Amino acid sequence: MTKPVLTPLAQSLPASVPFVGPEAAERASGKPFIARLGANENTFGPSPRAISAMQKAASEVWMYGDPESFELRNALAAHHGIAPENIMVGEGIDTLLGVLVRLYVGQGDAVVTSDGAYPTFNYHVAGFGGELHKVPYVDDHEDPASLIVKAREVEAKLIYIANPDNPMGTWHSADVINQMIADIPDGSLLVLDEAYIEMAPEGTAPEMQVDNPNLIRMRTFSKAYGMAGARVGYAIGAAEVIDAFNKVRNHFGMCRISQAGALAALKNSDWLAHVQSEIITARETIKQIAADNGLTTIPSATNFVAIDCGQDGAFARRVLAALLEDGIFARMPFVAPQDRCIRVSCGTPEQMDAFKKALPVALQKRGATAW
Amino acid sequence: MTKPVLTPLAQSLPASVPFVGPEAAERASGKPFIARLGANENTFGPSPRAISAMQKAASEVWMYGDPESFELRNALAAHHGIAPENIMVGEGIDTLLGVLVRLYVGQGDAVVTSDGAYPTFNYHVAGFGGELHKVPYVDDHEDPASLIVKAREVEAKLIYIANPDNPMGTWHSADVINQMIADIPDGSLLVLDEAYIEMAPEGTAPEMQVDNPNLIRMRTFSKAYGMAGARVGYAIGAAEVIDAFNKVRNHFGMCRISQAGALAALKNSDWLAHVQSEIITARETIKQIAADNGLTTIPSATNFVAIDCGQDGAFARRVLAALLEDGIFARMPFVAPQDRCIRVSCGTPEQMDAFKKALPVALQKRGATAW
């Protein structure tokens, strides 16, 4: 009996995962984390009103979610002062990026991103046979000008930039991003991933530009709104670009509970302000903990801080492993020289205390001996 | 400025949805349904323990779901007496079907299904450029023998059959399905969609056959477990077929709340038994309501019943519209001659009473006059 055969493209792809899950690390170590600070999650959690809304919706989960996410989409439109036709709600930015790549990137089509930027975007590009072209970070920042030059050179279908950036936490002002938007090459679509935008200073987000069919922006409830596990993201763009999602998206893919939670979270701006304040405090705490250990941090506009461990990637990796032995889960950038850093999420005072205790031990354990 | 251009495949696809959502119908009519009996949902709802588990998980939703769905996958493996390597958990069968088609169906590849069977599968096949070949129902049943003949003729990559069937509710015995499995042509993969299997009589589901790389089965928490809005399905197959999902699936796509709910639901077999019993009762109620109006029903192994309205599709459509005016939401098969029927979900006694009152009115309103 002849087995079924994968498509040539699928055959060429490894069975891989952009990130190993925190739970897998816990299972490997045999004990739960003391502080889960590695998955770019928001430990301050969702609005209590969002929790209530989700708890209420749990008993209604026998119904499919509204495939149009009508209420949420309209609330988001009002929130941003744009039309519902400019918004597509999806199962997190990861899913929206996958659909976007599927719509625009055929086999061999060029895509531009930064070397060391979001791996899940790269995973989708590879998954649809696109050719990735990467430009390096400059001073731990993504480099808009080089991204544009490269995009022009390779005639990129998509250009990806995250502002603020993951994994470094750095950011560009709206002026810089607006210049990048003005410079988008003919035929390219700029994917502006603003997953962390609610944590960034005023003046980071450009104004809405929903008449521009060469720009699409990604937002999420996973970060500032503290609902990573709910899988709610949304794209903002020109109506024709947004409507194209309806060609291939999973129309009934949204969790009904998550839709209810996101709607309640959006309406609770006080909680968002509270989280924003906690994050600013925790960033300073991480900076101080690093300084107490003779280390510097990269300024961050996100809910994580990259600590420069002052040596190479191998050293940073040893520090991470030592932290994990003490129950502290963190991660690190994949690419040199950014991989000299470890990336630590903002946490509650208890979590920050646990990290404060563990970091000097980890540095001492791993500093002198080969691992 | 030149706009970004969709891939040729994406350009060729309409912006469409396999089903318009019930909420859209409610918004159009300006009033909520009295009985939501059209979306193949289980109005008896999820296990109270599943609801509790989801309510508890809501406050932990700041964490991403485990990308391996480790606990749920292991519990499912134990439940079915197979290995975790034979199970892939995903965001509902819709998503799993999309990934499966993506893995196996390239542009122009042949796929076989029944004319009038699950439209979302067809949507995915079209979305990846596959060529659909359809065989007709026979006596309101999918026709395994013809599906196999057609698959052999066109050298199908995938063969789709739902057992029990949607939209008709009919089913084949495990013996018939086992014969179909034995007859799978070289190189074809049989997709056995068993979304409704927990509602079918003993002897409908074949034994597990996880050594067979030409067979993949789809199961879900959306139907008997009453959790459609949670988006939890799973595929059962040979380890190599299951592992291929890891090449392209959205690893962090599962809602953490839904994972918790599905795990609790699986463990609460008493509630499943309760729902199974309610469904058997409601099927009989629908049959009786139809009989009281001079109509017959198609025997069903699902939580819906197709009522033969005795005329053509246009008439059935008028009956549906009239029911909707009275707040009863139902649907109908898309293809003749099955579209002589309307499809009504099993409901609570209150919902069945509402339907009982509305049906004769709808038949009378629509029977004599053109609509």
Q: Oligomerization state of this entry?
A: homodimer
CATH C-level category of the largest domain in chain A: Alpha Beta
Please identify the structural class of chain A as seen in this structure: alpha/beta
Q: Level of helix content of chain A?
A: 40-55%
Question: So what's the overall shape of chain A?
Answer: globular
Number of beta strands of chain A: 12
User: What's the order of the H and E elements of chain A?
Assistant: HHEHHEHEHEHEHEEEHHHEEHEEH
CATH architecture term of the largest domain in chain A: 3-Layer(aba) Sandwich
By CATH, the topology of the largest domain in chain A is Aspartate Aminotransferase, domain 2
What strand order characterises the main sheet of chain A?
A: 2-8-7-6-5-3-4
Beta-strand content of chain A: 5-15%
Mean pLDDT over the full residue set of chain A: 96
Q: What's the structural domain tally of chain A?
A: 2
Radius of gyration of chain A: 21 Å
Distance between the termini of chain A: 49 Å
Total helices of chain A: the number is: 13
Question: What features would you describe in this structure?
Answer:
The structure is a homodimer of 371-residue chains. Chain A has a seven-stranded mixed β-sheet, with helices on both faces. Chain A has two domains: 17-45 and 270-367, Aspartate Aminotransferase, domain 1 (Alpha-Beta Complex), CATH 3.90.1150.10; 48-267, Type I PLP-dependent aspartate aminotransferase-like (Major domain) (Aspartate Aminotransferase, domain 2). The first copy, chain A, has 371 residues and is of the alpha/beta class. Chain A starts with 7 loop residues before the first helix and ends with a helix. In chain A, helix 3 (48-58) runs antiparallel to helix 10, helix 4 runs parallel beside helix 10 (256-267) and helix 12 (313-325) crosses helix 13 (349-367). Chain A contains 13 helices and twelve strands. Chains A and B meet through helix 1, helix 2, helix 3, helix 5 and helix 9 of A and helix 1, helix 2, helix 3, helix 5 and helix 9 of B.
